[in-house]
């Protein structure tokens, strides 16, 4: 486990985010622009959101591991309004996508898509991981592999 910054500093870097023992490694990874999700050391299954115990084999040997960030859009919604967040423009409107990651069927991560027209953000579209800065910290986002 990486202990490059203290838990207190980690919480301070992500105000408003629900940082827990189970997801602290994920947030530490974000600071290095590395997308980490929990994987079971015993059965090899990935799972998200993070839990202390593998939901498949009940092993406690769960550790955050890097994922490629490649995947396909599983679900997309477009927010016309929402809480004021720096960098979020609801007039576009703002896309929220759940991506099914290439690592494993059913392993999904929710973020947004950058650099694409909303009309091109479709179910099944292949995406790759990208990083932007929001609130002074890196945010994992996705971009379309083929821009339309
Ligand atoms: Zn397991």
UniProtKB/TrEMBL annotation:
<dbReference type="Pfam" id="PF12172">
    <property type="entry name" value="zf-ChsH2"/>
</dbReference>
<feature type="domain" description="ChsH2 rubredoxin-like zinc ribbon">
    <location>
        <begin position="31"/>
        <end position="59"/>
    </location>
</feature>
<dbReference type="InterPro" id="IPR002878">
    <property type="entry name" value="ChsH2_C"/>
</dbReference>
<dbReference type="InterPro" id="IPR052513">
    <property type="entry name" value="Thioester_dehydratase-like"/>
</dbReference>
<protein>
    <submittedName>
        <fullName>Uncharacterized protein</fullName>
    </submittedName>
</protein>
<dbReference type="InterPro" id="IPR022002">
    <property type="entry name" value="ChsH2_Znr"/>
</dbReference>
<dbReference type="InterPro" id="IPR012340">
    <property type="entry name" value="NA-bd_OB-fold"/>
</dbReference>
<dbReference type="Pfam" id="PF01796">
    <property type="entry name" value="OB_ChsH2_C"/>
</dbReference>
<feature type="domain" description="ChsH2 C-terminal OB-fold">
    <location>
        <begin position="65"/>
        <end position="131"/>
    </location>
</feature>
